[in-house]
Structures are given as C-alpha cells and as structure tokens.
Design brief:
nine-stranded mixed sheet, 21 strands, 362 residues, 4 helices, single chain, five-stranded antiparallel sheet, alpha+beta
Length: 362
Amino acid sequence: MNNFDTNNILLKTMCPNNEMIADRLGNPSVMVYIPKYKMNQVVAGGSDKTHPAFIVNGAEIDGFYISKYQNTDVGGLGYSLPAAVPCNCVGIVSSNEKCAAKGRGWHLTTVQEWGAIALWCKKNGHLPYGNNEYGRDRRESIFKAIPVTNVSDGKNRVLTGTGPLSWSHDNTQAGIWDLNGNLSEWVGGFRVVFGEIQVLPGNDGADTNNSQEADSSAWRAIDAATGEYILPDGNGTTESSVKFDYIDDGLFGWGSRWVVSTEVKSRTDAIRRCDLSFIKCDDTIGAEAKELLVAFGMIVDDPLFDYREQYAYLNNGIPESFMYRGGYWGSGAFAGVFCWSSSAGRGYEYEGNGFRASYVPL
C-alpha cells in the first residue's frame, strides 16, 4: 500500500464522504462526494425529476465530487488542498482551463452542481458562514481563519479550510469549505446573452468536451412554457425563451428589481443588484422552467425562508456574461451560498475571483 492509499484511508476514516482523487498527472485533490437526489427531496412541492446536476450527456449519474476547498494553483492546474493559498484574480477562461487540463471528467464546478449544494444546505438547515468581512464572518465576533500573508494583492483572503465548522456546508469537518466569501467563484455551464439565460443542458458542463469557453454549439436557451432546452438565435432574442428584465415597479419599496420573463423591455449595460427574494417570475414562465432556476439556486422556492439578505447581480445589456457565486472577503451581508452574479464577460479578471474544480468519472 502506497502513501496515497494510506492517506485516503485515513481521510475516509474521519470524513466518509471525502476522497483524495488524483488527476491525469497523479496529483491528489481532496474532494467531497454529493450523491444524487430528486427535486422533491429538497424543495417542497418539487417534481419527481432528478436534479439536473446528476444528468450528464443525457444519462443519470450516481453523484459528483466537488473540491472541498477553493482551488490553489500548482503548475498551472487547480487543486483542492487544506491550508493553501487560494487562486485570486482569475477569469472564467483561465479557471476553466485550470480545471479541464486535469483530465477527462475534471471541470469547473457548474451552476447545476453549485445549485444542488445550495438547495441541500437549505433543506438541512445550515447556510454556511465564511470570510465575508476581511478575515471573519460578519455575524461571528470570535472566530477567524488563518490569513494569507506575504502577498501584495488579495491579502484579505484566508488559507483554505482554516475557518470554524460554521464555514463548512454541513457544519462538520467533512463539509465543503468557503462557499460563503473568501473569493467569488466562477461557475461553468451558464451564461447570459443580452439578458437571455443559456446553459449547457443537464450537467453537460461536467464533460470537458463541452467547453463553455469556446463558441460551442452546445449552448441552449430554456423554453419558458415547457422548461425544454432550445436552440438560441444568438442575439438573446430567442422566441419564448427565459430572460431577465429590469423593471422599476416599487415592489416591496425596493424601487427596481429583476423579473424573469420571455421579453426584455429594459436592457442596461450596468451592473444592477437585487435582493434574491425580490426576483419574481411573471406569468409567462411555466412551472418546469421556474424549477430549473430553483435547481440552479438562482431564485427562491420558499418566500418564508430566511435567505439572510443574499443578493443577485446582473447585467442584461452585454453580449455575454458568465457567473460567479458566493461573494468575496469584502461582501459583508451580500455574500452566501445562494448569492450570484452574472455581470462579467469572457475577458474579465479582478481581485476577489477564484474557482474550484469538480469531478465526474466519465
């Protein structure tokens, strides 16, 4: 038995759902296994359909592995390692490349996978805390994590997995760390084109043959009436597709907010913020399409649940924007596992963005 096998046995003894998985170079990452579930197992009134995170290339999978920690760069690839310095100032393109280059089945965590974990957290009563206020969670006065030192940028990051148990997704040592804060994480399989939602169907973003960084013919819009994946027209104006519109209706005293519709009446090339609980689907959006957005963790399924002021950021006036999630070290109240932003294009990189890889045996 080699050292890799011994270390893996020790890891699984302490955390049965954790596993060290080697990439094509033989280098390990610490991963957390997420088993398959149906929508009605996490959403009250949900359908009997399998959550889309567990459907790859049209076939159901038993589960997927996600990095336990935000990824650190080792030789140009992303790795999930404890007490490591997480990548900072990376864009969607380089994040995807650092994951896909690890080998078949390795990929940038997708919107479907992130949504599956967010819904699991909500169902099990623990929305994780994290580094959303310069090394600490704004709601915790005592706990802090180990800061990143000797760097000129991103000095408010903390080393991966060094926060308290409240920073893991299941409130245990076996959980996924830093889904709230530290670094906003790019996710794959999703983009917005002039307000139109486009995805790689099911969880096809888990197959690196379907790279969202190429002008892939695999992208699909979502039919608002049926929830089916449909071929987009390329201009964000596909008939009857699901889109984001920005309106000013004074609802809840908010003044302006995002609404999910089949028509975009107001485009803006500026980033607009909206409390997650204020995003509504109008009557053009059918139950199946709405459930997809719930599955992605992009809209709320329970208006009475305390989502803790989590926010969505969106720009529906540009040709293409990708998604990052969770918030970063300075997000404060606007961070969390349900927090999302689709407001930055293909070439965008800024201080506070990171990523994590996931893995599906293919």
